[in-house]
Amino acid sequence: MTIELSNVRFRYPEQPHHNLLDIPTWSVPKEEQVFIHGPSGAGKSTLLSLLSGLLSPSEGAIKILGERLDQMSGRQRDQFRAAHIGYVFQQFNLIPYLSAVENISLAARFTQQKNTRALNDEIEELLSALNITEKSWYRPTRHLSIGQQQRVAIARALINKPQLLIADEPTSSLDTVNREAFMKLLMSRVAANQMTLVFVSHDPSLSSYFNRVESLNNISIGGAWL
Amino acid sequence: MTLTRLALRSLLDRKGSVALSLMAMTVSIFVLLGVEHIRYQAKENFSNTVSGVDLIVGARTGSLNLLLYSVFRIGSPTNNIRWSTYQSIANNKQVRWAIPISLGDSHKGYRVLGTIPEYFQHFSYGQQRSLTFANGRAFEQVFDVVLGSEVANKLGYRLGDTLTLAHGVAATSFSMHDDRPFTVVGILAPTGTPVDHTLHVSLQGIEAIHIDWHQGVKTSKKPLPLSALEKAKLQPKSVTAIMLGLKSKMATFRIQRTINQYNQEPLSAILPGVALSELWQMISLLENTLLLVSVLVFAAACLGVSAMLLSSIRERRREIQLLRVIGAPPYFLFVLIELEALLMTLLGSLLGLLLLAGSIMLLGDSLVPYFGLNVEVNLLTQNNVYLLGAIIGFSMITALIPSVTGYRQARVIQD
User: Fold this and answer.
1) Which of A144, B115, B253, B312 could potentially form a cystine with A148 if both were Cys, beta carbons 3.0 to 4.6 Å apart?
2) Would the CB atoms of B10 and A168 count as touching at under 8 Å?
3) Of the candidates A78, A105, A168, which has its C-beta nearest B1's C-beta?
4) Which residues of B touch A83 (CB under 8 A)?
């Protein structure tokens, strides 16, 4: 299993009597691509933050790739996230004043100890595979189109060869043409790298790309006041 | 991607606000280093100005005034000392040597000192260093002149050149002794003291150029011929001050008391070291105040940088979130913001140092005639290195405010 959740509850400190998420049990096998949909404010992004170790659950156990995330220290979770989890956001996936190559090498900084030459070769290979033209590699990413930025974001998420890829509404700022191209590219890379994908969106039309579709309401019985 | 490169790129991305904060930092470091450097140089200058002189004697006045006009050539004497008094003091059994000096004339803003040839033998500066000649020799004839190194350098005089003196000490004088030119016979090696900015002539030379003068005005339109001058008795009637070397240091206070109680005319005798300390104490009060003001200016600039970095954290919330997601621990943000403050301080220090060095090169010479202060361009003194260390330390401490805020934000980051 890539993801195993049992009796996970999450409450924000500002609302100590309100379980935003209450997940009795939920799991995702290796290499499965899960599409999670749900209304805004239901806790989709919070679930992803729990899965990536940015947040700790108020109660319960979170096991990712066989490791108990909830029992790790903050530093251990940071290292685990850098080594095993890729993340793509809706927007602001990149530091705008850095180039595509710099953004990707920054993501590699927190894990591998490769030499600069080997890392640059790997980055250039990845950018070429994602159809990003060479002239865009060293420009600040703020000068790239939204479509190009999202492709660089995939490259950034893939550089450490993560086993779990988390995508938080990555297509919501793209037009129809770019959205289709992005999804095809993403799914092909996920398949090629044999990754597990957890993809969150409120757009149900994207569900056709996935082999498992779930509503957050079916995963979590949260939202109840204690 | 190194952390330093990331910090630099981040600063460059906010170049508008960073440039303004950097300017404030540069100016404050310029002021702080400038005050400290001038304070240090002044102390060095003051303490090295005179040594080996046991007592300085002048007309009754305050010790600081006597020290300023006799050693630093600043200000004017209240009165002169009669020649007979000089002879009486010089003949005291405890006095090893007595050098009379006569001030009052100038050349292109540089002071002229009338004295005797033994001045070059007995006057010393720094650690008992005697005056040495870079070129030529001491004056022997009435119209010989020996130049301080700076006078020769700045005015481009060489041995054998002639020059005329002006009556009074103003840079521009209308009363010229242009009928009696002096010939350069010696140029002294640099000393870093007011000697460098002085023209040295014999007491007879001073007498000779004033022979037709009465109360600062030339009374005869037709100057005495040189042959007549040589025949005239060029014995000075008075001198401005006397520098004394004593046979025994133990006798210093006794001789000082004797001179202060001299009943033929009112005199003051001062110990140069004690007067220098008094002068330094007086000046250091002003300088400490200046230093305090410049420290406050620097503190304000540091807080300005901190405020800029703090406000940038709000703009960089998404950036912080992104860094966290890719595995950056919260302390990475802390170090990144501290590093940004460090880079700004280092750059501000470098610019401040360059600005100060440029200012000293441009304006340093103008400090000499007004304050007798010779400021060196070499800024990498031990004091300045310590001060730069303190500057960096202080800016790191003030940067803790945005750094800790960034760290805390990184810990609780949540979309």
Assistant:
1) A144
2) no
3) A105
4) 327
User: B251, B261, B210, B279: which is closest to B49 by C-alpha?
Assistant: B279
Q: Is A204 an 8 Å CB contact of chain B? A: no
Per-residue pLDDT 10s for chain A (226 aa) are: 889 999 999 988 888 888 889 999 999 999 999 999 888 888 888 899 999 998 889 999 999 999 999 899 888 998 899 889 998 887 777 899 999 999 999 888 888 666 778 888 888 888 888 878 888 899 999 999 888 888 898 888 888 889 999 998 888 877 888 888 888 888 988 888 899 999 998 888 888 899 899 988 888 886 555 4
Whether A75 has its CB under 8 Å from any CB of chain B: the answer is yes
Candidates B318, B326, B329; nearest CB to A107: B326
The answer to whether A42 and A217 have CB atoms below 8 angstroms apart is yes
CA distances, B389 to each of B288, B384, B386 (Å) = 19, 8, 5
Q: Is residue A92 within 8 Å of residue B318, measured between CB atoms?
A: yes
Any idea what DSSP says for residue B194? G
Contacts of B325 in chain A (CB under 8 A): 52, 54, 81, 87, 89
CB-nearest to B1 from A54, A97, A109 is A109
Cβ-based contacts of B1 with chain A (< 8 Å): 98, 102, 105-106, 109
- Output the CA torsion sign for B182, B184, B186, B192: positive
* H helix and E strand count, chain A: 7, 9
How close, in Å, is residue A192 to chain B by CA atoms? 22
User: Are B6 and A98 a contacting pair at CB < 8 A?
Assistant: yes
Q: Which domains does chain A have, with CATH numbers?
A: 28-55+71-210 (3.40.50.300)
Looking at this protein, which amino acid is placed at residue B319? E
Assigned token pair, A158: 């893939």
Q: Comparing C-alpha atoms, which of A135, A191, A190, A184 is closest to residue A158? A: A190
Round to whole Å and give the CA distance between B354 and B379: 9
